[in-house]
Amino acid sequence: MKNRFLNFLMCGAIFLAFTSCNEDDGATGPDPTNDEQWVTVAGAAMGENPGDGNGGTLIYAVSYEDAINPEVSIDVYEDGEPVKSNRTARIQVSEDGNTLFNIAYAGENGGEFSRFAVGGGASYVEEDVTVSIAQYAGTAPRWGKLYDGDKTGIAVNIADISANNAPVDENSDEKTGPFEYYRGTATILALDLQNVEISGYQQYEIPLSQEEELAGHTIFRLDAPVLNQVGNKLIIGTWMRKYDPESGDRESEWDRLGTKSVVVDYPSLKNAKVITSTVAHGDCSGYRSNVNFLAEDGNIYQATQRNPNGEGSYILKITPDNEYDNSYVFSLDEALGANDVYVQTWRYVRNGKGYVVYRKGESDQSFVALVDLNARTAKVVEEIPNDADLSLHQYQGFHVSGDNLLMAVTPIGKNGNIYVLNSQTGEVTKGAQLINKPGNHYIGAF
């Protein structure tokens, strides 16, 4: 059934800023050759404040050749197609660029998974297959596509965090024993991306150590799932939180634990186990994109966020044995000669090289650095504009093709470009021009 991607929202309240509804299903870009891929460019429209991305997400597809051509202009806000999502969508694109996957985030369709054929330009044709995971993982699940040939997506959620106290005496309404822990119910759900169906899910509590739980620590969020090299374990990032065991109030300042990940059996999704890094103390759940990547050496490399006391972000190593390698210390503060580096997102490319998007301290300005995981070095990409309005905290998608990484870079409300970054040589070239609108910014090239 050839329905235009979310035509019913085109005239809806979220997109009142856009002046017309285009009913022409034939709006396509040039066909890519067999050696090329579609590149989907995404932009986030402002809601109430510049850069908040709460006005929705728009997308537009071009050939790889056009994406790297500085003579080409792309205006996703005038020519693009809106994505089904109440806020900034978390879209995923197939390895060949020809299929787009989306789970609507919040709203009346929150939790609904759908699939679209990429036809070029604003042509994203919804296939007549959908499935809702809302009853299992809520209406705003975090999710990611595994690097398994576009077979599987993993959605995760933690809900209903509450204290578990000893039973209350029915006669006195007093507790008959001490506080034990705060826990929520974790959901880990596998989506068959090809058949568009739920292929499995598990729900359970994930305990920490008794000492940690008695102090009020708990897993607040799961995100950024990645499959290990053997294919028998999923590693899932965590975002930690702490409550006061006496009052039940959430604590804003507390001594953080070492960075923790959850490891579960795959494909059964059972036997959840928590592993802990002694190198870093930040979270490893990411924000709008993945921060966990499998490299050719069989190790998973993980960037940390929300690091305490100005510690700065680390890249951690998880071995093929699904344990942290605490002898691997890669501090981005040290590598970049900066203080309180905060990784907003990053992408592994190949041969031990990748690119990190980061800010420093409380500043919103973003920078990009080429990282060498083996040498544990980082070098700022000087060709990326040094602009105070460049804020990439919502950035989601990188397009990787061989040694090259394509990245959409626009300061808030300003025009920019797709940048072509060669991970092996460090060469940087400008690609297509990106036309912006006040308060908006581009958040991906998938």
E-strand count: 29
CATH C-level name = Mainly Beta
Average pLDDT figure: 89
- Supply the number of helical segments: 6
Estimate the strand proportion: 35-45%
Strand order of the largest sheet: 1-9-8-7-6
Q: Fraction of residues in helices?
A: under 10%
CATH topology type: Methylamine Dehydrogenase, Chain H
Class derived from helix and strand content: mainly beta
- CATH-assigned homologous superfamily: YVTN repeat-like/Quinoprotein amine dehydrogenase
Biggest β-sheet: count, sense, barrel?
Answer: 5 strands, antiparallel
Query: How many separate structural domains?
Result: 1
User: Unreliable stretches, pLDDT < 50, 5 or more residues?
Assistant: 1-34
Tell me, what's the shape? globular
Radius of gyration: 22 Å
So, CATH architecture? 7 Propeller
Describe the structure.
The chain is mainly beta and 446 residues long. It has one domain: Methylamine Dehydrogenase, Chain H. It has six helices and 29 strands. The chain has a five-stranded antiparallel sheet with strand order 1-9-8-7-6, with no helix packed on it. The longest helix is centred in the middle third of the chain and has 5 residues. It comes from Marivirga lumbricoides. Keywords: Signal. This is DUF4374 domain-containing protein.
Supply the key terms.
five-stranded antiparallel beta sheet; five-stranded mixed beta sheet; disordered N terminus; Methylamine Dehydrogenase, Chain H; DUF4374 domain-containing protein; signal
